């Protein structure tokens, strides 16, 4: 494979919330839930985005408007072009068949939405069920409301759903429900606490980590987490791997490559 | 079947085998160095450190093409103070660790060398040859015999550790630069840095892909040039050579050693074959030596010369 961006046309755009848009493009790439692409805007920058929709040859990335690059992406219209290279990374391993819980914090929900799609398809066969927890700061930030029914919503300000964090809501659900496996993506402190809860309740868990990614294919060392390259060894890690990653939930690498404590 | 010995001494540093992680690849943290060491690298080099922290160029910074890789990372690094916190207790890594030190002027090199002097680095490498970072290497005029002599001399006064001077393949008078480094007290020459710079344009976007537009070329495309540089250097200087450029197999490594390298650096090979490229190269070297009746790697060094 040659690691160079290919220019693709944006074929559709959905406004998911006041700050999140999903951009769709056609590609014959093969994606697994949890994998990501590097998105290039010529002359500006290139950033990683997880694939949030996987439908035959149509793929989507859900983008939170946050800085210079994502502002420029949000200004793109249908028919506009972006550069894509990938797919990169190791996604979620979707082998379990019932009593699953998916926990998304903020834009972390994007990474999990492809998981939910895939699980719902397979679960028709397995008769299981999927519990979805989505947490944001406030109701205006909730995404995929039409896409997924019966989500367990929570907001920090209580404007919709449970008032409190995803971790708190997950803890509440654990009092009355048993889960076999948890998939989570969101702020790393949230993930850390989710993993702690899973350990306590003996639940398998996989989480998708976020690091500053440069090359995307495992050579620059910019996304290191305790000797694991988030771009190629991850971004999804299981509990056994996380237990050997001292940096998980403790330090993050800056753009200069300095490891700093949260 | 002869018993194969890949161990080698480089400037009195004992290496289990002649493969070294080249600077700029995976050398950002001690944890990654350790992982590379666990994958059989004989020694590892950290990503280059400057006095001040640097974010480097914007992305894309690294792309690949049919014959190798193009990069303009722009020397992103946390600066000497943070690096000194990162690279403590280096014996944990398990193999010798080489510090790569950069600067915009000779005083900067000295400041970085002094800043890491209390740590357990086995050698100091000074790349005077980066083709794509303003203020450093070729773009700062460091690739001349005079500048090389001055910077190497300044670093020589600042440290008693072995000094490796890393040179550019671009320069036709590479032997003169290597001699200047040798005269200034360098203990080995690392040959070579990336060549070029080169450029790759996305024709649909009608723009160069790298944010810095140009970047150093490494990988397969660089290998024959690197082998020629090492061949020429072997005749011109007495100090050992670390051969770097497009090595990803045991055969490549043997070729570079026959050209005159005592050890080989591997960088882009990590992309071609994964972090365990070091183990694979060693296994392939061992097999080749068995098949061809060599038992000691030292006996191959410079073997291609008349």
Keywords:
heterodimer, A: 262 residues, alpha/beta, Elongation Factor Tu (Ef-tu), domain 3, Rossmann fold, 7-stranded mixed β-sheet, 6-stranded antiparallel barrel, 5 helices, 17 strands, B: 306 residues, TIM Barrel, 8-stranded parallel barrel, 4-stranded antiparallel β-sheet
Largest sheet of chain B: 8 strands, parallel, barrel
State the shape of chain A: globular
What is the CATH superfamily label of chain B?
A: Aldolase class I
Tell me which oligomeric state these chains represent.
Answer: heterodimer
Q: List the strand order in the largest sheet of chain B.
A: 3-4-7-8-9-10-15-16
Q: If you compute it from the alpha carbons, what radius of gyration of chain B comes out, rounded to the nearest whole angstrom? A: 18 Å
Largest interface: A-B, 36 and 44 residues
What would CATH call the architecture of the largest domain in chain A?
A: 3-Layer(aba) Sandwich
CATH topology of the largest domain in chain A: Rossmann fold
Round the mean pLDDT of chain A to the nearest integer and report it.
Answer: 93
| SSE pattern of chain B | EEEHEEEHEHEHEHEEEEEHEHEHH
Order of helices and strands of chain A: EEEEEHEEHEEEHEHEEEEHEE
> Largest beta sheet of chain A: what is the strand line-up?
10-9-8-7-11-12-15
Q: Give me the CATH superfamily of the largest domain in chain A.
A: Nucleotide-binding domain of ferredoxin-NADP reductase (FNR) module
Number of separate structural domains of chain A: 2
List the uncertain runs of chain A: none
Helical percent range of chain B? 25-40%
């Amino acid at each position: 494979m040659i690691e160079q961006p290919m220019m693709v046309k944006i074929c559709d755009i959905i406004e998911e919330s006041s700050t999140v848009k999903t951009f769709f493009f056609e590609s014959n790439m093969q994606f697994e839930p949890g994998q990501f692409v590097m998105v290039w805007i010529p002359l500006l920058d290139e950033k990683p985005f997880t694939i949030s929709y996987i439908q035959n040859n149509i793929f989507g990335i859900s983008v939170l408007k946050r800085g210079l690059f994502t502002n420029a992406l949000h200004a793109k219209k249908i028919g506009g072009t972006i550069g894509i290279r990938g797919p990169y990374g190791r996604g979620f391993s979707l082998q379990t068949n019932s009593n699953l819980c998916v926990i998304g914090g903020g834009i972390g929900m994007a990474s999990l939405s492809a998981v939910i799609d895939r699980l719902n398809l397979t679960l028709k066969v397995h008769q299981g069920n999927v519990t979805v927890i989505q947490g944001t700061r406030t109701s205006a930030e909730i995404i995929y409301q039409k896409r997924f029914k019966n989500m367990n919503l929570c907001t920090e300000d209580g404007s919709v759903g449970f008032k409190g964090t995803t971790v708190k809501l997950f803890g509440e659900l654990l009092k009355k429900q048993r889960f076999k496996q948890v998939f989570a993506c969101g702020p790393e402190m949230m993930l850390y606490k989710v993993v702690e809860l899973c350990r306590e309740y003996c639940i398998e868990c996989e989480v998708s980590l976020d690091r500053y990614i440069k090359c995307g294919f495992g050579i620059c060392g910019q996304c290191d987490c305790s000797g694991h390259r988030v771009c190629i060894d991850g971004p999804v890690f299981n509990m056994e791997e996380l237990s050997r990653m001292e940096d998980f939930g403790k330090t993050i690498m800056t753009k200069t490559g300095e490891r700093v404590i949260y | 079947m002869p018993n194969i010995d890949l161990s080698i001494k480089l400037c009195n540093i004992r290496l289990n085998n002649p493969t070294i992680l080249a600077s700029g690849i995976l050398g950002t943290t001690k944890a990654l160095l350790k992982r590379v060491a666990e994958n059989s690298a004989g020694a590892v080099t950290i990503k280059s450190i400057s006095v001040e922290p640097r974010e480097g160029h914007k992305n894309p910074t690294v792309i690949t093409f049919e014959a190798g890789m193009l990069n303009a990372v722009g020397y992103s690094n946390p600066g000497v103070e943070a690096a000194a916190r990162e690279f403590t207790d280096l014996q944990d890594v398990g193999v010798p660790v080489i510090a790569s030190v950069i600067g915009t002027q000779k005083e900067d090199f000295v400041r970085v060398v002094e800043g890491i002097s209390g740590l357990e680095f086995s050698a100091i490498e000074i790349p005077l040859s980066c083709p794509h970072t303003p203020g450093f290497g070729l773009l700062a005029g460091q690739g001349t015999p005079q500048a090389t002599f001055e910077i190497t001399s300044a670093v020589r006064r600042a440290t008693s550790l072995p000094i490796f001077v890393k040179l550019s393949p671009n320069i036709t008078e590479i032997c003169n630069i290597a001699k200047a480094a040798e005269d200034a007290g360098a203990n080995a020459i690392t040959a070579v840095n990336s060549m070029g710079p080169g450029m790759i344009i996305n024709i649909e976007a009608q723009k160069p892909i790298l944010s810095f537009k140009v970047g150093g070329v490494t990988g397969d495309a660089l290998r024959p040039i690197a082998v020629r540089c090492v061949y020429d250097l072997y005749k011109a200087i007495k100090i050992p050579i670390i051969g770097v450029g497009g090595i990803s197999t045991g055969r490549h490594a043997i070729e570079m050693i026959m050209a005159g390298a005592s050890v080989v650096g591997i960088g882009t090979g990590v992309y071609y074959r994964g972090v365990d490229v070091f183990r694979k190269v060693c296994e392939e070297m061992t097999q080749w030596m068995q098949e061809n009746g060599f038992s000691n790697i030292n006996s191959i060094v410079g073997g291609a010369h008349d």
